[in-house]
Design a protein that fits this description.
heterodimer, A: mainly alpha, ABC transporter involved in vitamin B12 uptake, BtuC, two-stranded antiparallel sheet, 16 helices, 4 strands, B: alpha/beta, Rossmann fold, 2 domains, 4-stranded antiparallel beta sheet, 9 helices, 33% helix, 24% strand
Chain lengths: 425, 249
C-alpha cells in the first residue's frame, strides 16, 4: 500500500478531528448540573470499555474479571496521589500512567495464568481471579482501605498554568485528553501485526499455531496491553471520584463493562464508546431517578441481544448503509411508525413498572407516587387503566405496523446486497 | 540429508495403536503422495508430523533435526507447513488478511505492536504474490468464511505456502472438488511447490499419479510400500491391500 494522501487517510483524519472536537465542545453543550460529572464518568468508562474490547471483540476472550486491572490501577494511582515519597513527584496529569503501569504489571502477573487457555476455561479463570482479588481486598485493609476504601484529594502540589484539578471542568479535560490518546493508541493497536494476529486467534486459534504463532503469547501480550489501558481508566476514575474501594475490583464492575461493551457492539472498534454512553446513562443518570434502573438495563440488554445482537453500532451502521445507497426515503416512514407505537407501549410498560415498584418497595411512604411533577395514586384504578390502555395500544399498534416495516426493510437490504454483488463482480 | 524422515513412528490412542511403526523418507524437492484405505492413519500421520499430536515412540526428523515433541508453531518455524482436510481459515478476516497473517511470522514481524501493518511493504507484496498464485485477486476483500468451497480450498493452500516453508504437507487438497476444479488445484499445487518438498494425502488417483514422484502406501498404520508410481501400480502387496483391485490411473 502506498503511503500517499488518499481520501481514506483524509477520512480517518477527519474522524479523529471530529472526535477531538466533540470532546472539546461536549462540556459547553452539556453544562447544566451534574452533566460535567456524567461526561467525566462516560470518558473513563469509554477507555475501560475499549480496553475490554481488545480482549472480547478483537481477541474473542470473554473475561469476567477485567475490573481487576482497572481497579488495581486505581488503587496504585490513589496511593501515588496520597504518597509523600516518590508518588508525590508525579503530577496529577500523569497519575493515570501510574494506574496504567500498575494495571499492566498485574496483566503480566495474572495474564500469564489466565491466557494459557481460551474459551470457557479462560472465562472461568478470570471469574475466579476477580473473586480472589476482591476477597484479598478485604483481607489487606492497609492497602485497600477495607470497607471504606481509600480517599484522596486530587488538588495536590502547585497549580501549573492555573490547572489545579479542583474544578470538575479541569478533570473532564484531563479525562478527555487521556481518552483521546488512549483511543488513538488502541485503534493503532488494531493496525499492527499483533493486533491482526489477535483477530486470527479469535477466528481460529488452531490454525494460528500452524503459521508460526504461539496463541498463548498472542493472547498474553494483548491482555497486558489491554490491562495497561484499563489501568489508565482506573487512574482517571481515582482522580475523578477521589475514592477507590473494593467495589472497583469486583465481579460486578467486571460484569458491567462486559454488558456495556456488548450493548455498544463488540465487533466494531467504536462500539464501546456507544456502550459507555448508554451504560452511564442507565447506571448513573437513571439510577438517580428510579430504583427500577437495573430492570430497565437488563430489559434493554435482552431486547438488544434478541433484535440487534451486534449491538448499537450495528444498528447505526445498517441505517447508514441504507442511507448511503439512497434508500432511506423508503424506510423512514415505516421505521417512524414502529418507533412511535413501541414508544406508546414502552410508556405504558414503564409507568406500570414504576407503579409496581412504588406499591411494593415504597409501600411505607403511602400510595402517592410523584413522577415528572405529577402525583399518581398507585392504589387507584384510573392509572392502571391508563397503563393497560397504553400497553394494549402499543402491542396492537406494533403488530399492525411491524410486518410492513419488516417487508420494506428486507426489500431494501436485498436490493443493497444485489447492488454490492453487482459492483464486486 | 532428507527433508523429512519418519523412523519407526508409533502412535496409540488409549489401547489402540493407530500408527504402528511407520517409516518414510522424503528427499529434498521430492513430491510424495500418501495413499491408503480409509482408517489407515493418513491424517493421523500428518497430525504427528505437524505436531498437532505427540508421537508415542520413534522419531521424526525435519532437515535432519528431530522435531518430535515440538509444538506446531515450533515445527512451522523450522520450515514445515501443512494444510487441513477441512478448510481451516480465519473466517472473519478477508482473503488478503488471511494471507498476510500467514506471512507475518516468517517475515520476522512476530508479535510486533509497534509497527504499522499497512507499512510493511514486504508482507504486503508477499501476500499479493500468493493471492495471484492462488487466483483469488478478485476475492481479496471477501471474508474467508463466505468464499465458495473451491475458493476456500485454494486459500487453504495459499495460507499453507505463504510463509515460504520448504516442506509442505497437504491433507486431501482436492477432496470434494469437481473434475475441473481438481485439475485446476493440481496445476496450482504444482506451481506453488516448485523447489519444495511435498507430502500429500490424496484419494483421487489421477491427482496422485499426476503430481507424485513417489507414492507411499499406508495400511493399518504401516507404510507397506514407497516407490515410483509405476512400481506401486505393479506392487502385489499394494493390490492386495486395495482388496485385490488394480490401482487405476
Amino acid at each position: 500500500m502506498r503511503l500517499t494522501f488518499t481520501p481514506l487517510n483524509l477520512a480517518r483524519y477527519l474522524v479523529w478531528s471530529g472526535f477531538a472536537l466533540i470532546l472539546i465542545v461536549a462540556p459547553l453543550i452539556f453544562s447544566k448540573g451534574a452533566a460535567l460529572s456524567i461526561l467525566s464518568q462516560i470518558g473513563t468508562v469509554m477507555i475501560f470499555g475499549l480496553s475490554y474490547n481488545m480482549l472480547l471483540g478483537q481477541g474473542g476472550m470473554l473475561s469476567f474479571g477485567h475490573a481487576v486491572y482497572s481497579g488495581l490501577g486505581a488503587f496504585f494511582a490513589i496511593h501515588a496521589m496520597n504518597s509523600s515519597g516518590i508518588g508525590a513527584s508525579v503530577p496529577t496529569t500523569l497519575i493515570p500512567l501510574v494506574g496504567g503501569f500498575a494495571g499492566m504489571a498485574f496483566g503480566v502477573l495474572f495474564g500469564y495464568v489466565t491466557t494459557k487457555k481460551s474459551g470457557t476455561t479462560f472465562a472461568m479463570i478470570t471469574l475466579g481471579l476477580v473473586e480472589l482479588v476482591f476477597a484479598s481486598s478485604l483481607m489487606f485493609p492497609s492497602f485497600f482501605g477495607g470497607e471504606g476504601g481509600i480517599t484522596t484529594n486530587r488538588v495536590r502540589g502547585d497549580a501549573l498554568f492555573g490547572i489545579s484539578y479542583g474544578p470538575q471542568i479541569q478533570v473532564y479535560y484531563l479525562i478527555a485528553f487521556w481518552l483521546f490518546i488512549s483511543t488513538i493508541a488502541m485503534f493503532a493497536f488494531t493496525q499492527t501485526p499483533l493486533g491482526r494476529m489477535i483477530n486470527a486467534v479469535r477466528d481460529n486459534p488452531e490454525r494460528v499455531e500452524f503459521i508460526g504463532y504461539n496463541t498463548q503469547w498472542v493472547r498474553y501480550l494483548t491482555l497486558i496491553l489491554s490491562a495497561f489501558f484499563a489501568g489508565i481508566s482506573g487512574g482517571l476514575g481515582a482522580i475523578n471520584f477521589e475514592i477507590v474501594s473494593a467495589e472497583n475490583v469486583s465481579a460486578i464492575r467486571s460484569g458491567a463493562v462486559l454488558l456495556f461493551v456488548f450493548i455498544g457492539g463488540i465487533s466494531f472498534f467504536f462500539g464501546p464508546l456507544l456502550g459507555a454512553i448508554v451504560g452511564v446513562f442507565f447506571s448513573v443518570m437513571l439510577s438517580d431517578f428510579t430504583p427500577a434502573w437495573q430492570l430497565y438495563l437488563g430489559l434493554f440488554f435482552v431486547l438488544l441481544v434478541r433484535y440487534a445482537p451486534a449491538g448499537l453500532a450495528s444498528l447505526i451502521l445498517m441505517l447508514l448503509r441504507v442511507k448511503s445507497f439512497g434508500l432511506f426515503h423508503r424506510i423512514w416512514k415505516p421505521l417512524l411508525a414502529v418507533c412511535a407505537v413501541s414508544l406508546v407501549g414502552f410508556a405504558g410498560f414503564l409507568a406500570g413498572i414504576e407503579m409496581l415498584y412504588h406499591l411494593t418497595l415504597e409501600a411505607a411512604n403511602g400510595s402517592i407516587m410523584t413522577r415528572f411533577g405529577q402525583q399518581i395514586d398507585v392504589k387507584a384504578a384510573a392509572p392502571w387503566l391508563v397503563v393497560a390502555g397504553l400497553l394494549a395500544a402499543g402491542i396492537v399498534g406494533y403488530r399492525r405496523v411491524q410486518p410492513g416495516y419488516y417487508a420494506v426493510w428486507s426489500e431494501v437490504n436485498a436490493e443493497i446486497a444485489a447492488k454490492q454483488r453487482g459492483s464486486a463482480a | 540429508m532428507n527433508a523429512l524422515e519418519l523412523k519407526d513412528v508409533r502412535k496409540s490412542f488409549g489401547k489402540s495403536e493407530i500408527i504402528r511403526g511407520a517409516n518414510l523418507t522424503v528427499a529434498k524437492g521430492e513430491r510424495v503422495a500418501v495413499i491408503g484405505p480409509n482408517g489407515a492413519g493418513k491424517s493421523t500421520l500428518f497430525n504427528l508430523v505437524s505436531g498437532r499430536f505427540g508421537i508415542s515412540s520413534g522419531d521424526i526428523c525435519l532437515n535432519g533435526n528431530s522435531i518430535s515433541g515440538l509444538k506446531p508453531y515450533e515445527i512451522n518455524r523450522l520450515g514445515l507447513s501443512r494444510s487441513f482436510q477441512i478448510s481451516n481459515l480465519f473466517v472473519n478476516l478477508s482473503v488478503y488478511e488471511n494471507l498476510r497473517c500467514a506471512v507475518l511470522w516468517a517475515m520476522g514481524y512476530r508479535y510486533s505492536f509497534w509497527q504499522r501493518l499497512n507499512g510493511l511493504r514486504d508482507a504486503h507484496e508477499r501476500a499479493e504474490q500468493v493471492l495471484e498464485q492462488i487466483g483469488l485477486q478478485r476475492q481479496r476483500k471477501v471474508l474467508a468464511g463466505v468464499l465458495t468451497y473451491a475458493e476456500q480450498r485454494a486459500l487453504e493452500i495459499g495460507i499453507t505456502i505463504a510463509g515460504g516453508a520448504d516442506v509442505i504437507l497437504l491433507d486431501e487438497p482436492t477432496a470434494g472438488m469437481s473434475r475441473s476444479e481438481s485439475d485446476a488445484a493440481v496445476e496450482l499445487i504444482r506451481k506453488v511447490t516448485v523447489g519444495k518438498s511435498l507430502v500429500m494425502v490424496e484419494h483421487d488417483m489421477s491427482v496422485v499419479f499426476g503430481l507424485a514422484d513417489k507414492i507411499a502406501v499406508l495400511v493399518y498404520g504401516e507404510v507397506i510400500a514407497c516407490d515410483t508410481p509405476a512400481n506401486i501400480r505393479s506392487n502385489a502387496a499394494v493390490q492386495a491391500a486395495y482388496l485385490g483391485q488394480e490401482v487405476h490411473a
